[in-house]
Amino acid sequence: MPHKPPTQEELEKRKIVGVNFETVTDVSSTDFPGHYPGEDHAWDIERFKKGFSVEFHQNDPYEASFSLIGCDASIANAFRRIMIADVPTLAIENVFIWNNTSVIQDEVLAHRLGLIPFTGGREGLHEFLKWFEKPAEGEQPNCTDYNTVELSLDIKCEDNDDADSKETDPTKLYHHAHVYAKDIVFKPIGRQEQYFSGENIIRPVNPDILIAKLRPGQQISLTMHMHKGVGSDHAKFSPVATASYRIMPTITITQPILGRDAEKFQKCFPKGVIGLEKVTAKEAAQKGSGYRGHEGELKAVVVDPKRDTVSREVLRHEEFKDKVKLGRRRDHFIYLVESTGQWESDAIFLESVSHLKAKAKSLEQQLVNMVR
Amino acid sequence: MAARRDSDVAMDDAPTSHQPEVKDDTMVDDEGDDFDENEGEEEEEEVEIQRVKLLPGSTETAASFEFANEGHTLGNALRYVIMRNPDVEFCAYAIPHPSEAKMNVRIQTFEGTTAIEALEKGLRDIQELCDVVTEKFVKAAADFAEKKAATG
Fold it and tell me: What is the ipTM score, two decimals?
């Protein structure tokens, strides 16, 4: 039997995961050689290039949203996982506590300090600073200017003599009643001066993070060492608050939804997903369109399926059940990357791509070694 | 397909996920010994320990590989690109035990190529793919910035 190449419509249909009232359909990818007899689904970089696109929705330093269209979930998921667990950042790793008479215990304080996100000169952070090698048991750590950043926190709470006698607010009654992230001082060592001075100084992303509360006579005095690390070791090293993707929802209205029904239909979805338009004279004149004799009435149209949460509320209503088809596009991933501030959020994604490439490259070399 | 092998591979000895504890003396080559780490000069990182191993019971066209310190991140992506190779009859990955940092990939190919070649091609395809993603992403970001600047 000679093979008929698939129509455009058929190709589009293959990308859709069906979402029904209780069930889902066509969940797995089918773009593998041999799945459709007579069709060529071999990996081809040129074909991938043609079918793949990126679309930005938002690109701010702390938040970026973009779509990868035309790639498989396994690839999209690899990028997401790498962004969370494998892109390195600098965070406080060791805390040397000289004195801590506050009510917060040393280990709790150290943990809180570790979680504070820091930022600084990008060139210094990403290129100048290198990995810190953990010393072997019993050996001295090799801390140098290119693998360790030193910070200190020296603060003492004292009475404020100028405070009003009726004052009850501890922040006015005492000096340094609250210890904030901005109280942490960066001490450049060696060549760090060159990369981390002026606006490039190493500093907390948010200066107002509350670290501890003190009362007169209490003090905290400690030194901290920051090292580079990855999220798979500890979440404090993750460059993202969250990096996630959704799969693009699709909504297909199969039969006209008009008037009061259209308004109700619109309410079944989040704001902005469904719009209301007047039925035009042309549509009303069209035979079999279902709009005959409804000129000027409002009809429901899909405006922005991306905003849908696929709650399936619409399928709970008897009158809409057979008039709409919900689904998701299997190869369209809407990412949301929220940076903690050490990287630009779009740079985190780019770094994840080059990380995957580097990983594949080093393993290719390993494979060659293995065969030898 | 005509190229299908007719006899199965004998999977005799050794459970597939347990490697003898003798680590990597199979490979250490070239600069194996002088591990002077203040050799700060970059690019080709010091020769790493061998992270890819061929599991026992493998033949030319049907092999299992063990990757140390890899997980679902690479496993699933690699499985996908290898499955897109028409010379590959079967490809799957597994993490035999969650508390062992190991990932296994099983590849069976049709005659005419080998499992090792298929794995190598898979790793190359991932690299090419990454280049395309980077290229398109950078362009999309630039276009977006331009559009944003234009609309104020």
Answer: 0.92
